[in-house]
Amino acid sequence: MAGRIGLTLIRHLPTVGNQKKQYIGWTDEPIIEPTGVVHFLMGQPAVVYGSDLRRCEQSAAIYFPGIPYKADARLRESHFGEWEGKTYALLKDNKVYRAWIDNPTTQQPPGGESLAEVKKRVWDVLLDLPDNRTDYTIVTHGGPIRILLTAFAPEVQDFWSWTIPHGSAWHLEWASRSDFKEGKRCESISVVPTTESALM
Questions:
Q1: What is the side-by-side order of every strand in the sheet holding 188-191?
Q2: pTM for the full model?
Q3: Which residues of 5-24 are buried (b: 16+ CB within 10 A; e: fewer)?
Q4: Which of 24, 139, 149, 200 could form a disulfide with 17 if both were Cys (CB 3.0 to 4.6 A apart)?
C-alpha cells in the first residue's frame, strides 16, 4: 500500500527483577541468559531502535543478531522513583500506590514519572524517526508498549487491559505517514507470531 507505515513494538527478555515481580523501571539490570532464542516471523529490519537500558540492548542482539541498534533513553521504562525494586505485595496498602494504580496517567510514584510524562518522551521518539523508512522496529519495555497500544489501537482499551509478555511483539499499521505522525489511531494491530529454537 502506497504510503503505508508499519511500527513493530517488542518487549525485552526477562531479568531477575522481572521474575521477582519487582518494579525495576530505570534500574539497569541485564537479562537472564535465555535457554532458547525467539525468532519473529517478520522481515529483518535494517536498524532497530530501543531503550538504552541493558535489557533492551541485549534482547535486540538476540532477536536481531548483527542488526545496528540505536539506543535512546527516551524509550526507557517508567521511572518508579521510591518504588524501584519494590513489589505489589509490599506496596498494595500504600494509599499513594493505590491512587497510582487507579489513575496512572496523572498520578505518579514519589520521585518518579506519571504515564503522561512517559508518553510525551516516547512520542517524541516517534516524531524523530527518519522519514526514509516505512517500517520501524522498537525494542522497549512493558510500560511504553502499553502506552502506545492504548494511544494507537483502533478500538479504545484501558492501559492496564494490555498483557505484554516478555519477548512478545505487536505490529501496527497506518495508511499514511501523515496519519502516523499526527498520532491517529492505526488501521490494524496484530501480535507478531514467533518460533523458538534452543541455544547451541
A1: 69-71, 48-50, 135-140, 5-11, 169-174, 188-191
A2: 0.93
A3: bbbbbbbbbbbebbeeebbb
A4: 24
